[in-house]
């Protein structure tokens, strides 16, 4: 696996990549100074087809964004020919569920052997610090992250209830309570963190009951191929 600090690439290429990643684009639009956080704590990874990217049982605080290629997800990496449960495509985020729940990885992710190139960006979210530590990122950035997590987990659960109406978890899914306090405060941040963990917990139960990958999407779509070419030429 080849890992290169984001700061080693030309600014125009990195800016273009950041714009294609919904979470990062949203954060930087709200807080332009947060670009420095992603520049400092992110890396671009290039792996060979068939390489294992994440192993079930490992613990880390990195969150990843696929830029090129395709990834395969296995809840148990024993007989991987029969145990594939999900694909991850360009534009999708992965690895975030374990971070939210503060647990070990619960799936193994492998670079598709049929791809010529597999490239993704990873950001070390341990630099976020404790929930009330704003020395590295602002409260606005943390609120944006957890708000996105709540929204996407909730949507994911709603889709599962529609797709599998007979599953007993339909009746056990959490309700959603709107925040009624002042926005942009510590109270809102704690509320969103709690909501994100609640939805992530229930999503994990659904995933295990259906053997579906414990991964939700911040956004789908293909990263423009010209950006990937520029990225590789600049490395």
Structure description:
The protein has helices at residues 11-20, 22-30, 35-41, 96-101, 139-163, 186-210, 225-233, and strands spanning 2-5, 42-47, 52-54, 62-68, 71-74, 86-88, 93-94, 108-111, 118-124. Residues 213-220 have low confidence and may be disordered. The protein has 235 residues and is an alpha+beta fold. 39% of the residues lie in helices and 17% in strands. The protein has one domain: Jelly Rolls (Sandwich), CATH 2.60.120.
Characteristic terms for this protein:
235 residues, alpha+beta, Jelly Rolls, 5-stranded antiparallel beta sheet, 4-stranded antiparallel beta sheet, 7 helices, globular
Name the structural class.
Answer: alpha+beta
Report the CATH architecture: Sandwich
Spell the H/E element sequence: EHHHEEEEEEHEEHHH
Q: What is the H level of CATH, i.e. the homologous superfamily?
A: Jelly Rolls
Beta strand %: 15-25%
Q: Helix tally?
A: 7
Q: Total domains, how many?
A: 1
Which topology does CATH recognise? Jelly Rolls
Morphology? globular
Within the largest sheet, what's the order of strands? 1-2-9-4-7
